[in-house]
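Give me the fold.
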Amino acid sequence: MNIWNGAGRRIYLQEVGTRDGLQAESVFVPTTEKIALVDSLSRAGMAKIEVTAFVSPKAIPALGDAREVMLGIERVPGVIYSALVPNVRGAEGAIVSRVDELNLVMSASESHNLSNLRMTQAQSFAGLCEVAALARQASLAVNVSLSCAFGCPMDGEVAQETVLEWCARFIGEAGAGGITLCDTTGMAFPTQVNSLTRRFRDAWPDIELSLHFHNTRGMGLSNVLAGIEAGADRFDASLGGIGGCPYAPGASGNVCTEEVAHALQLMGYDIGVDLEKLIAASKRLPALIGHDTPSQIVKAGRRLDLHPLPRDFEVIRERALSREI
């Protein structure tokens, strides 16, 4: 597969900034602004938007308005509206709020699972199987995001066999229709991504696979391309590159949606996204969260966003031409 020539191949970009990004912020973005942000992403053509998380407001105050946001957004045909749910109570709230998909989270690392979710992996799996059963009753899609699939900041390497065993259990026992392999703390590297993606695709060619990368060590876009080469076609990304993990000091945000979209579009991939609308949405973020974002596309513009000539350009040219004469 020639990854350098997309030749119209369809790649699906899935926005997680409205959940993964905003939950990491110290400020509360007003509900109306969250709704407007989601609506702008819908109109920009994102394939899926993880709108929010149905979690305890005490645990994550930034997303305490999950129900109001989910019920207030515009539903654009073709866009999947997802929400993270940690337990049955969260799933019940998400179901009555008209989500399209429940996103369940567990870590491939026992240490990270205990630190992040305060449960053993066995406890998490049992609870998420209950949530999956509730989703089936409501005829809702279930996606499982497996954190630390490419490494754990406390345990180090996570064996691919371990990751694939958990995938097998979630697909076979919980009935998950989608799996997201998450590089939660930016430890993934391209050859590793390529290998794990190929092994997953070989085992479950019909299961929807998403890859979720952080750009902590500057390999985010390289990892996306490695995933594409191995057959992946769905990628999580965060508007402005916001987000992070509290258990990885120094970790930066997710791969930046507009940066990934810009690169893939230049390479000829069909991403189904209006890049201009995406950039406009990203430019709204600093005023909402109170600080700059990592987005280089917002800072520098697109490749062919040209700059004006110097004011004295004609004088410079005249002098240059006179020297030739």
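DSSP finds 14 helices and eight strands in the chain.
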